Amino acid sequence: MPKFDSNGLLTAVAVDHGTNALLMLAHMNREALDQTLETGFAHFFSRSRGKLWMKGESSGHVLKIVEIRVDCDQDALELRVEPAGPACHTLAPTCFYRRITPEGSLQRIVD
């Protein structure tokens, strides 16, 4: 099973199972992982709010779990998901919608 850090968290990345697009990065505590396994939908732990949340609980843009993979060190998860809408709260399809240019500015790359 995964190994949680000293704060009781794991890093989790959500990847679109159909396209292999990296959608988002978040953290999970034991309760978030248990809820994810129980419901089949991605749950995370918000470090800023200090509470459990289900992705899409207010927007409807849930992440349906297809498979959960564990990295070689057992301290990070790859959630293979079927997204129901955009993954980012900005309504971009992925949270990784900008890149840093050689000049050091941010450039939007995904609409």
Characteristics of this structure?
111 residues, mainly beta, 4-stranded mixed sheet, 1 helix, 9% helix
Q: Total number of helical segments? A: 1
Q: From N to C, what is the helix and strand string?
A: EEHEEEEEE
**Unreliable residue stretches:** none
3D shape:
globular
How much is the radius of gyration in Å? 14 Å
N-end to C-end Cα span = 37 Å
- How are the strands of the biggest sheet laid out side by side? 2-1-6-5
Strand content: 35-45%
Helix % is under 10%
Your description of this structure?
The chain has 111 residues and is mainly β. The strands form three sheets. Strands 2-1-6-5 form a four-stranded mixed β-sheet, with helices on one face. The protein has a two-stranded antiparallel ribbon with strand order 3-4. It has a two-stranded antiparallel ribbon with strand order 7-8. The longest helix has 10 residues. The model has no long low-confidence stretch (mean pLDDT 96).
Q: What is the secondary structure topology, with strand pairs?
A:
Elements: E1 10-16, E2 22-28, H1 30-39, E3 43-46, E4 51-54, E5 63-70, E6 76-83, E7 98-100, E8 106-108
Parallel strand pairs: 1-6
Antiparallel strand pairs: 1-2, 3-4, 5-6, 7-8
Question: Could you write a compact summary of the structure shown?
Answer:
By secondary structure, the protein is mainly beta. It has one helix spanning 30-39; strands at 10-16, 22-28, 43-46, 51-54, 63-70, 76-83, 98-100, 106-108. A hairpin with a 5-residue loop joins strand 5 (63-70) and strand 6 (76-83).
